[in-house]
Amino acid sequence: MVHGNGEDHTIFDEAVRELKGEYTCYCLDSRCHGKSTDTAELHYRDMATDVILFIRALGLKDVIFYGFSDGGIVGLMAAARCEQITTLIVSGANTSPKGVKLWLRLAVRASYLRRKDKKLALMLREPDIADEELRRIRASTLVLAGSGDLIPEKETRHIASLIPGAELQILKGEDHGSYIVHSAKIAGLIRDFARSTKES
């Protein structure tokens, strides 16, 4: 499980309590976040490589990857390159800086001009996920977003339409992180989709 921008693995504590009886859960702090090492530069592709190296170092197979927001971006990039990820679930992901609502882009830009935070710079300059990269994903995939998400529904539908066989759920009444951050709701969505892929 990989968190969003400016967060750490503890946002998943409530979900992990629901999942740990059935799954081994690895909740990573992305580079420059939480307890992970700070680096001079910050790029989504490096974060995706970190995830792939983690999976391979532990010899994990049939990985269910869940990513929220920036973690979803990392998941899309990693799944396109890592066959060990066989189930992919992403929430509130985008493929380019313009794949978020305009007011958020303006707010992030204003905040970056004041703080010069590289995590904010990341959101302004990246990601750069091409359609062909999404088409390379072979994992069973569920694409999620809230009906009141920071990501326009058009962007979420675009992602789901390009990943072969992907399922899409727009969750009514939820915003970007309401069903994820310190919420057990995401655990049920992960469990239900993971079970459905095993049965099919």
What does this structure look like?
The protein has helices spanning 13-19, 44-57, 70-79, 102-115, 118-125, 131-135, 153-162, 185-199; strands at residues 63-68, 85-91, 140-148, 167-175. The radius of gyration is 16 Å and the shape is globular. The model has no long low-confidence stretch (mean pLDDT 97). The protein is of the alpha/beta class and 200 residues long. The two termini are 23 Å apart. Helix content is 42%, strand content 16%. The protein contains eight helices and four strands, in the order ααβαβαααβαβα. A four-stranded parallel β-sheet has the order 1-2-3-4, sandwiched between helices.
Chart the SSEs and their pairings.
Layout: H1 13-19, H2 44-57, E1 63-68, H3 70-79, E2 85-91, H4 102-115, H5 118-125, H6 131-135, E3 140-148, H7 153-162, E4 167-175, H8 185-199
Parallel strand pairs: 1-2, 2-3, 3-4
Helix pairs in contact: 1-8, 2-3, 4-5
Short synopsis of the structure:
The chain has 200 residues and is of the alpha/beta class.
Keywords:
single chain, 200 residues, alpha/beta, 16% strand
SSE sequence, one letter per element: HHEHEHHHEHEH
Shape verdict = globular
Average residue-wise pLDDT: 97
Helix content: 40-55%
Largest sheet, in brief, is: 4 strands, parallel
User: How would you classify the helix and strand content by structural class?
Assistant: alpha/beta
The radius of gyration is 16 Å
What is the strand arrangement across the widest sheet? 1-2-3-4
